[in-house]
Amino acid sequence: MASVAASGGAADAAALSVRALHKSFGADEVLKGIDLDVRRGEMVFVLGPSGSGKSTMLRCCNRLEEPDSGEVLVEGDRLTGPGVNLNRMRQRIGMVFQSFNLYPHLSALGNVTLALRRVQGMAKAEAEAAGIEALNRVGLSDRARHYPSQLSGGQQQRVAIARALALKPSVMLFDEPTSALDPELVGDVLDVMRDVAGQGMTMLVVSHEMKFARDAADRVIFMDGGVIVEQGPPEQVFGAPTEARTRAFLSRFHG
Predict the structure, then answer these.
(1) Do residues 212 and 244 lie in contact, with contact meaning Cβ atoms separated by under 8 Å?
(2) Where would I find the beta strands (DSSP E) of the chain?
(3) At residue 48, does pLDDT exceed 60?
(4) pTM of the model
(5) Which residues does 209 contact at the CB level (< 8 Å), separation at least 6?
(6) Residue 62 near residue 93 (C-beta atoms within 8 A)
(7) Among residues of the chain, what percentage have pLDDT more than 90?
């Protein structure tokens, strides 16, 4: 597990705070007042059945979905509300999606450096140096000039992680990052996520990778019906869940 969050003091300050978050799609109330703090350096896993609101919550955390009410703060700075420079704030929140969302006409390095050049205004040489550094962190600096079609799905997802890391965000959000991968490719992506967490990155992860959650998370959250039903250390949530809904969900998985 990442140990940064457990050390107390400044590490306990919230990197990401969600307060009274509500979101509906038509008559369907998907989020019913979510409250959540993710401390600096903490890896938090969010588990729950399909339709429980996990991905909607994650997308509200960088305003890909607009909350109906409530607020989101990144290191104490409001992401929600009027007058927010959304482009600037989003540079502080990396996002890795289920689909890799790479530009097929750009190399791995080109995908990683695009935002560095266009959003942060880096010169080409500086952006490429930062891009190579980010690709190196995910073990793909030797694939920098390869195009997405020349990479496996797992490699493409690792490029997507490098793209987010290159912006040096305060928080990284992962939305089912391994669900589109062939089973034999999942391990490499999870290894990279473990390494990134070990380097102190704050991570909020929606995933069904139960074994990884049990082994790597600092905290596990179980969501159902638009609310947080239960949360705690993985050994407690997996080993001795207190809520019937959590027990019923986990009973469907082995190990």
Answers:
(1) no
(2) 14-25, 28-39, 43-47, 69-74, 77-78, 93-96, 171-175, 202-206, 219-224, 227-232
(3) yes
(4) 0.91
(5) 178, 186, 190
(6) yes
(7) 83
